[in-house]
Amino acid sequence: MNFDISHLLDHWDYQPGEVAVRRFKTKDGTEKIQLRVDLGLLQMNATGRPDGKRPFGRESLLQHYQAKRQRFRRTHGGSDDGFTLKADDCAKLQQEAIQYHHRYICLFQLEDYSGVIRDTKRNWEVFQFVDEYAESNELAWSLQQFCPQLLMMRIRAKGMQSLREEKHAEAVQVIEDGLEEIRNFYRQHSRQDLLEQSGEVHSLESWLQDLHSKRPLSEREKLEHALDDAVRREDYEKAAQVRDALRNLKTSR
Question: Is the pTM of this model over 0.85?
Answer without folding.
Answer: no
